[in-house]
Amino acid sequence: MGKVGVKLAVGCALAACVVASVMVGRRVRRKRAWRRVVRVLEELEEGCATQVGRLRQVVDAMAVEMHAGLVSEGGSKLKMLLTFVHNLPSGNEKGTYYALDLGGTNFRILRVRLGDQRSAIIGHDVDRQPIPQHLMTGTSEELFDFIASSLKDFVEREESVSEPSQNERRELGFTFSFPVKQTSSSSGILIKWTKGFVIEDMVGRDVSECLQQAISRKGLDMRVNVLINDTVGTLALGHYHDEDTVVAVIIGTGTNACYLERADAIIKCQGLLTTLGDMVVNMEWGNFWSSHLPRTSYDIDLDADSPNPNDQGFEKMISGMYLGDIVRRVILRMSEELDVFGPVSSKLQVPFILRTPLMAAMHEDDTPDLTEVAKILRDTLEFPDVPLNVRKLIVRVCDVVTRRAARLAAAGIIGILKKIGRDGSGGIARGKNEGASRSKMSRTVVAVEGGLYTNYTLFREYLNEAMSQILGEEIAPSVIIKVMEDGSGIGAALLAASHSTSSVDTIQIP
Ligand code: ADP
Ligand code: MG
Predict the structure, then answer these.
(1) How far is the CA of 107 from the centre of ligand 2 (A)?
(2) Which ligand is nearest to the CA of 325?
(3) Which of 43, 223, 276, 326 is most buried, taking the most CB atoms under 10 A from its CB?
(4) Does an H or E element contain 280, and which?
(5) Residues 6 or more apart from 180 whose CB is under 8 A from it?
(6) For strand 444-449 and strand 479-483, is the pairing parallel, antiparallel, or unpaired?
(7) Considering only CA atoms, which residue is closest to atom 19 of ligand 1?
(8) How many CB atoms are closer than 10 A to CB 357?
């Protein structure tokens, strides 16, 4: 080999060394970055831990807070609102009734025909429409005019093709799923907005009256004769089908629960109520808080960035409005550590871009190479080529976030059961003798409604699993969860029917 050849060979060897060391360096850096990303996942898992012992602490905290909220106004983050609904539908209701369900992403208008035999809902027709975004932050008149004109169109359409209603005047049950301070079963004042609605002029006003006025403006002959929350509608439908239904839970865009309470346990209005017996209490459990809830930095940031910081803490860990965004925040954190995502996608910075149904679709992707995950990452977050190992990691993130949500919801439900002495432990406010009859567990049905629970199989499975774990083998079979499809709407029509002729008590709570 000549001199030139030697130089060339040395040069090549040197270049190879440089390339090799660059590659090794890159591999080492990537390995380190990978380890940091895995660490992000591990920290998330630790932060979201919901072992049974911790869930039991949440159960106890829920029961204690319920009690505190019933003792005095403002006694707890749980508002424990009175509904003035004493009697749930009996099964003897008859006639045709309308319902309007305004809850979050959609509103629904229903027409329900009732026979006079138990379980005889002869039929119901539903019109479902999204609420235009601009109406969520406009004025109350704009929102209610839009709703009333949809209602009028629906009534005209329905009545043109079916026999006219036998009722003298059309009657409507209004499901309004935001915190309301009821003054009777047909009127109430909006306390605050949640779930992204901000219509300032509505706060402090009578919700029923706003709707009634809009209905009159449209020239529609219809009376709003019951104002309820979606949980109460769900309880009403549950009870209509099965008298053992005493608790209802919504797990959709938001989350809330109500249950049947003894009137004498509602200490904050003792002496004020004209009716004894039971009353449905709307817990507004989305605002529940306890130091036992497993909270991460992602929850803290999500809360701080929300329009209602320090509010709805339980809801922000559980409901469909938020789960996708918690996952987005974790992926954003991971993408800052690992360059396989490429330069941090600007899409990933957009709050709520990863909606919960998309997150659920990634979580439930059962293709071997996670093609659905790849598709969502590409189409929604603009990550064109995420390797399989990273896609697997993202599925794990979805799993951790959803599992925590479902298990906390289960603990919340059992907290209610504990408060009313139906969890097998005797309850916190019961006598000794009642507590002793552990073995004689009465059957309890919990009515559940909401898109997150009904559409998200893994969420449902995690919730049911946690219920069994907390209650234990002996008690678990006596607690039955029943899905009430369209419960919030049909239940409102049922209550409109049962409140059609009954006298209604009214009080002013100081
Ligand atoms: P609302 O709570 O507005 O009355 P729904 O009960 O229908 O409405 O719940 C809708 C919510 O349920 C959505 O905002 C979404 O978060 C969640 N959801 C709907 N479909 C799915 C799905 N396939 N997987 C997971 N979550 C879903
Ligand atoms: Mg709803």
Answers:
(1) 8
(2) 1
(3) 326
(4) strand 278-282
(5) 81, 188, 189, 190, 191, 207, 227, 229
(6) parallel
(7) 451
(8) 14
